[in-house]
Amino acid sequence: MTKLLISNDDGIFALGIRTLANTLAEKGYDVTVVCPDRERSATGHGLTLHQPIRANVVDSIFHPSVTAWSCSGTPSDCVKFALSALLESSPDFVLSGINHGSNLGTDILYSGTVSAAMEGTIDGIPSLAISLASYTSTEFTIAAQVTSQLLEKLPPIPEGTLLNVNIPAVSQAEIAGMMLTRQGLRRYIEQFEKRLDPRGKSYYWLAGEAIEDIPQPEAKHLPSDVPTDVEAIKQNYVTITPLEFDLTNAKSFLALQNQGIDDIIG
């Protein structure tokens, strides 16, 4: 039986993770859920180092065959905790999601969803981050079915690679297909709204709105006609973007080496 570890950044009570875990449990997968006890969106790859992590078994929320834990830590904490302290053996896959909202382009740098899956990749386990590309739709069933199809037919994932999957919030008939994409670019109009607390002291609330139709970056190490995830999701494709934790820029390395940067001291 294929073993799955599922986490998220929307918290243990999120409809997305419940839909995903229950759908896969009903299909015969051995499912363990370990996720934050509350929403921890946009926490990136943060870890809890200066306070204890508390974890509790969760009953009655998931399918009866699902073993579920809530954790006081970040999404990355949850996966580390599960792999090191809870599971007797490594899962066959680590899944993160289904996130409520897209994780496209540069969103991945902030995403707790992607970071939870990346924790599995770092540990050598095939991992997928799954997101529903809408902040308003709560119809996660199609996204769960798409994930199930992926698991059934997925070829071996190259070592050190995470698959970032974004699913359009449309009907099954409206999905144009699956498309292998490259990471795109997203920018936001960001505002820090100033407010006053009951004691008259100021505080700030960050809000942001994605800028539509910005130019996408040129492809690096790929044919120029490979679309970005940002572009393909607009055409109702399920986007699959291979990511890696090695952030070394090989082209810049060679350029700086040729300019003698490593001879500055010596």
Description:
This protein has 266 residues and is of the alpha/beta class. Helix content is 24%, strand content 27%. It has helices spanning 15-26, 75-86, 112-122, 141-153, 229-234, 250-258, and strands at 3-7, 30-36, 55-57, 67-71, 93-100, 127-132, 161-167, 177-180, 188-196, 202-210, 237-244. A nine-stranded mixed β-sheet has the order 3-4-2-1-5-6-7-11-8, sandwiched between helices. It has a two-stranded antiparallel ribbon with strand order 9-10. The N and C termini lie far apart (57 Å).
Please trace the helix and strand order, writing H or E for each element: EHEEEHEHEHEEEEHEH
Fourth-tier CATH superfamily name? Survival protein SurE-like phosphatase/nucleotidase
Roughly how many Å apart are the termini? 57 Å
Going by CATH, the architecture would be 3-Layer(aba) Sandwich
Q: Can you tell me the overall shape?
A: globular
How many structural domains? 1
Instruction: Report the CATH C-level class.
Output: Alpha Beta
Largest sheet: 9 strands, mixed
Our count of helices gives 6
Helix content bin: 10-25%
Strand content: 25-35%
Runs in which pLDDT lies below 50 for 5 or more consecutive residues are: none
How many strand units?
Answer: 11
Mean pLDDT across the residues is: 94
Strand order of the largest sheet: 3-4-2-1-5-6-7-11-8
The assigned structural class equals alpha/beta
